[in-house]
Amino acid sequence: MFRMVTMQKYHLPEGMRVATLEERREFYAREFDLGKVAEWFGNQAVGTKFAIVMGRHTRVFLKEYREDADTTILLKAHKSLAEVQTQAVRFLPESLYYDRNVYDAKGHKLGQELAFDLDPENITCPVHGDLAEKMRRGQGLGFCKLELDMVKQQAIGLFEYLENEFSILKIVYSGRGFHIHVLDKDAHSLVEKKRREIARSVKARGFAIDEWVTIGEMRLIRLPFSLNGLVSRIVTPLLKSEVERFDPVHDERCVPKFYADGAISSS
What we know:
- The structure is a single chain.
- This protein has helices spanning 21-31, 34-41, 81-91, 131-136, 145-162, 185-188, 192-204, 211-215, 240-243, 257-260, and strands at residues 50-53, 72-75, 95-99, 101-103, 109-112, 114-118, 169-173, 178-182, 220-222, 227-228, 233-234, 236-238.
- It is of the alpha+beta class.
- The protein has one domain: DNA primase, PRIM domain (Alpha-Beta Complex).
- The protein has a four-stranded antiparallel β-sheet, covered by helices on one side. A four-stranded antiparallel β-sheet has the order 6-8-7-12.
- The radius of gyration is 18 Å and the shape is globular.
């Protein structure tokens, strides 16, 4: 029997909701696809660091971990992706991340994957206002279908802009917004000053990115194929050509089986 606290209420598009603890367990025990995760990383999986957050935003977590519910916990002891899965089943996180830093065999930082994070709360909505207004209403992480559609268009535009600067780009639906990953090896060695210049240039063109992610101050990013527990959606890589028609409410690639098959009651 799971012991949990009351979940935080955010306004979300119809068809999205916070995942319960039992649903998180169901996903990580039975559906979490380690093969797809390994394919995402290629030969870079070895040495990659992972992290979890149990219940910072949803307030859904196992009571025995109450003191650490808001903490970002680094998973340091794993030797394989299977052990990361074991930790996810143990802690039932609302979020599972990987560290974009690139390390050598001794753990020294060699560089960092460049990434861009576009989230719907950063969109100024004609109905719900800007981020400051949303936060005053306690809806800093809430969003509507209109904001989701607007951030999707921003993701397409940003991808097209970045294609002029970089060669290897991947776009990922994060569960709420979109991430664009730059996998050019030269981009890994960019210093903070250059990353800051890139972030400011992108912002100046009207893209509502989280600058901390691009600059590198926030080095963690959602792990593709993990569960975003805030909205009960799987973090899903997409082709750029798929984004325009992508519907995260119904697309079977991002809808977990527990949701598609009917909600599992929590105990």
